[in-house]
Amino acid sequence: MDFEYSTEQRMLADSLARLVADNWTLARRRAREGGLDPAAWNALAELGVLGLTIDPEHGGFGEAPASLLPVHLELGRGLVDEPVIASGVMSATALRASGNAEAAARWLPAIASGAAILALAYQEPGRRYAVAPETCALSGLVLDGSKHLVWHGAEAHAWIVSARDTADGEPVLLVVPADAPGVAVSDMSTLDRSRCARIDFSRTRLAPDQVLARGEAARAALALALEWGTAALCAHAAGAIARLLDITVDYLKTRKQFGQPLAAFQALQHRMAEMVVAREMALSMAYVAAAALAEPDARTRRRMIAAAKIEAGQAGRCVSQLAVQLHGGMGMTDELEVGDFFKRLTVVELLFGDTAEQLGIMEETAAMDEAATMDATTTMEETT
User: Fold this and answer.
1) Please, what's the b/e burial string for 54-82 (b: 16 or more CB within 10 A of its CB; e: otherwise)?
2) What is the helix (H) or strand (E) element at residue 371, kind and residue range?
3) What are phi and psi of 119, to 5 degrees?
4) Residue 3 has what pLDDT?
5) Could you tell me if 209 and 155 are in contact, meaning their C-beta atoms sit under 8 angstroms apart?
6) In the chain, what are the domains?
7) pTM above the 0.90 mark?
């Protein structure tokens, strides 16, 4: 995959950088407390950010997965907390992958234009990172159960909800409008000032056209949505890491001790070198995650994205901790935005599965590959 920016991508990245600089300053981010800014959201839609990978037939631009990289790098540099990944990446991917043409025609143009925000509701209380639905159940067309940690859930006009069909135990994906009867939403702030929600469904009656996919189609669409979301999140993390490094280097060049800048001290130069290495590793693995989205083999794709997520978490922890330390006592205060980057990178490590969860994915896919190789060898020997 060629990651050299095209002319169009460079123009988009430059325009987005200017938009982020104007709308996501420290003061404006904190004043919003993670809430949606309609003007900024519309500006993102007008730039084409929300419909970037949505096909032109549904009002998007039909760009390749690699286009996620320049966009989410810039959004990460500005700590943009709007539901771009939740709606424009994950929900759009789930709709596209479900194979439900009617639902795609209804929702994808609205997502691309910013008129509708969708969020993916798949996690259930007490089940940590488990993806397969269990306690949230669909009986006929009646939905009961709870979803929690729904990223930007309270801002959404509808949710893509995973549930277990009580008739056959198979998973089902549903599009549930936020104004559906029997729905209760509890909005809450997270560590990094973004928002998540708990959604409770009590005898929520749905229409037949709100069933997005069933069985294997539902399972595959949900998995692909999480993979696309994780890849975009890795790029977001790489952008945040790069910006935090820039802030730290500027501080060390400005702050003086014993008559010279802190950047002149060799011990601190070593710490900066560690941060540079971590930044380059995070960026490299963000490339890997974006490349994985075009990988046809599902196990290889999962393993590549898991590896990228692990590196994003480790690099984010390294850079954010060193940034706080190198700012001295001020790094622990709310006066500087260093803490904002620290909190965002901490949350990034936990979203969609922490390091332990990603290591489990890598072990699982490696075991599956080994089993497939052994089966192929056995078959070949028997044939011979």
Assistant:
1) bbeebbbbebebbbbbbbbbbbbbbbbbb
2) helix 355-383
3) -135, 150
4) 62
5) no
6) 7-116 (1.10.540.10), 119-215 (2.40.110.10), 217-379 (1.20.140.10)
7) yes
